[in-house]
Amino acid sequence: MLLTIATPTLFIVYFGLLPQLLSALDLIVPKTVNVKLGERFEIPCLEHLTNTEVQVEWFWENPGSRKRVLYKRGSATLVENGFTWGEKFSMVMQVARLIHNSEYTCRVKHSGGKKEQMTNLRVYVQPGIQIKKTDKPIEVDGSLAEIARCNISEAYPKPQITWYKDEVQLKPSDENVDVEDFITKDEKYSGESVLKYRVHKDDGKASYYCNVQVQRTGYGRNSSSIQVTLHYPADEVNLNVFPEYIAEGGKATITCKTNGNPPPLIVLFKDDKEFQNPLTAPYTMQPASRKDSGLYKCEIKTSKGGAITSQKTIIIHYLDPVSLKGLSQPAEKGENITLTCSGDASGSVVYHWTKDGVSMTTRGENQTITNVGYQDSGTYICYAYLTRTVGDMPELHESNSGFLNIKGSPEFLEEQTMFRVMPIISSKNISCRAYAYPKPVVNWTGAIIEENNKWNGTTSIFRTEIALEKPWNFFGSSVTCDIHNEYGSVTREYNVISLFYVILLVFVLLLIVTFIIVIIYRKRKRTSKHNLLTPYFSMEHQTGQPELDVDFVTENMLTNLTLLILIIRCRLKILSMLLLIILIEMERLMEELHRRILKRIPRMHLIALTFDLIQLLLPYLSPSSSSQRLMQICQTWLQAT
Fold first, then answer.
1. Whether residue 247 sits in one domain with residue 226
2. Computed over its alpha carbons, how large is the radius of gyration of the chain?
3. CA 464 to chain centre
């Protein structure tokens, strides 16, 4: 009964643990191991196991035989031939030798079976490499010529030598390539490889090197690069000029280049005449002159006695200072004139004109002006530009300027108003401005205090200014400005009126309007109680207040008018005080009217109306500082009120 039960249990335990045991015995032996001669190597077998029943062995597979060099089972171990144990049941050798080049096998045994796996150990030696190019220049004649030799020493295993030109492998199968290897073995390998190559002219800057690769390891080393000297005859010559566009005063360089090596002798010609023989370095023109322009040619001789040439025409561009004609003498008004701008240049010239800084539409070296007048006078500038022929051509330009004077009868400079209003208590300046050439003479007629004249001979502008006499002498008076020279004259008359009379007229009109209102009021009061002023009297009749005192109003207005006449000859500050007094009296009168008649009209509206009247009269007062002061007084009074 117990055996029947135990047998299935042991079967389940054995076959349940067996897959785990087999999976734990997965070997980790690499297929190939490369090691440099004299260095330590270590080859792992499997991961660490705690099962002491596992047996691990390493075998050295010599040709035709197998030799065990390592053994371990539990605490029992065996080591031979200098091999030792390492981690992960690895085989360790402290110093690799050439005899260790072989195959090795790791075998693992346990109760469930065994496993083994082989590895290939490769011990290599990197060779010494030295490349040596041929000593003599190589003639480019179409034959195979020795380029270089690649020497190697103490390589193991047998090396493979490959040649490269500009990073491209040279294959012996190519008809232009020939490689010969001379390798010998004395425990290690030594020898050389010789490269022969059919060179061309364009191989003069090519680089060559050899690569030495040790067999079975895949390791390789490159030698240093070398270049060889080629000899070949020249079959062309090129003449180059820098820069392409040359301005006079600049720098230019002529270079002759050939494709021969060694370079042949070069002769430089100018206009078919020998110029530099031989030309050993670039020819430099600094500073370049227009005399350097011409046909330049480079020439070389061939081995057969012929000549190869290259030529180019060189132009030194220039633009001389331009001259401006037609402005030396003043032009007479009404005639036609032509201004001419010209200058010597190496090419086509474009002209541009301006007058007083403003561009003119006409292009070309000639500028024609018909029926000239004073408006045509001014500064004329002519700009000359050398036409560009290439993109990087610097701009050459010159300019010249002059002033055009127009002579003739005077012309007033602008339209001026013919009416002048003089300020109170001050003289008035009146000016006349006119174009005139030659210098004119001016005559003024009228009440004049002083006269000041200025004339600009460059712009032909004449200015004259006068100061008039005292303003109360002018009521409908006039002054006349007459400007004349040898070609004619112009006259302008100015009508002058004093602001004194304007203000006096305004006050008289105000007085008349006041009397008319009073008369209308008294007349309508007699004829009807329902007249125009009835809305303003209704409240007064109900309250029983006294009627408007007409004598009082008239007396105040006459008093103010008399005061104005007495101080009319005082300075502007006194007049400002007078106007302030009148303003106060008018305000008091408005209060009386408001109290007696116009109670329904807001008081501030009347004050604002009076202030607007003062503002209307102030622009005619001079000087402006006094007017501003009067404005400030009125504003202060209005705010206080």
1. no
2. 61
3. 52
Residue 470's pLDDT is: 60
Output DSSP code: residue 229.
Answer: -
What is the per-residue pLDDT for 571? 40
Tell me what pLDDT residue 283 has.
93
Which residue, 317, 334, 353, sits at the end of a domain? 317
Backbone region of residue 460 per phi and psi (left: phi > 0; alpha: psi in -120 to 50; beta: other values): left
Strands (E), 24-167: 32-36, 41-43, 55-62, 65-73, 76-79, 84-85, 91-93, 102-110, 113-124, 128-133, 138-139, 145-155, 159-165
H or E stretch including 611? helix 603-617
The answer to the question of residue 504 being in a domain is no
Q: What per-residue confidence (pLDDT) applies to 251?
A: 92
Helix (H, G, I), strand (E, B) or coil at 617: helix
Secondary structure element (H or E) that encloses residue 555, with its range:
helix 550-566
Given 231, 256, 276, the domain boundary residue is 231
In total, the chain counts a number of residues equal to 641
Whether 212 and 171 share a structural domain: yes
Element holding 8 (H helix, E strand):
helix 2-23
- One domain for residues 165 and 241: no
- What is the C-alpha to C-alpha distance for residues 187 and 197, in angstroms, rounded to an integer? 33
User: Is the same domain home to 117 and 176?
Assistant: no
Q: What is the CATH number of the domain that holds 379?
A: 2.60.40.10
Cβ(159)–Cβ(140) below 8 Å: no
Amino acid at site 330: P
Weakly modelled stretches of the chain, pLDDT under 50: 1-22, 424, 529-546, 548, 566-573, 596-606, 609, 616-627, 629-630, 633, 637-638, 640-641
Q: Do residues 93 and 41 make contact, with C-beta atoms less than 8 angstroms apart?
A: yes
Residue position matching structure tokens 């200014």: 465
Report, in this order, helix, strand and coil percent for the chain, each rounded to 5.
25, 40, 35
Query: Model's pTM, two decimal places?
Result: 0.50
DSSP label of 626: H
What pLDDT is stored for residue 632 in this prediction? 54
Residues 559 and 623 in one domain: yes
- What one-letter code names the amino acid at 543? T
Residue pair 162/254 in contact by the 8 Å Cβ criterion: no
Neighbouring CB atoms inside 10 A of 79's CB total 15
Q: How many structural domains is the chain composed of?
A: 6
Quick check: is 603 in a domain?
yes
CB atoms within 10 A of CB 337: 18
pLDDT of residue 472: 53
Beta-sheet strand order (sheet of 128-133): 128-133, 145-155, 188-197, 177-186
Tokens of 190: 């030594």
Per-residue pLDDT at 1: 35
Do 615 and 542 lie in one domain? The reply is yes
Is the bond into 157 cis (omega within 30 degrees of 0)? yes
SS3 346: coil
Structural domain including 466 reads 409-499
Is the distance from CB of 61 to CB of 43 less than 8 angstroms?
no
Cα distances from 607 to residues 133, 585, 590, 632, in angstroms, run: 118, 12, 8, 16
Q: Which of 365, 384, 396 has the alpha carbon at shortest distance from 290?
A: 396
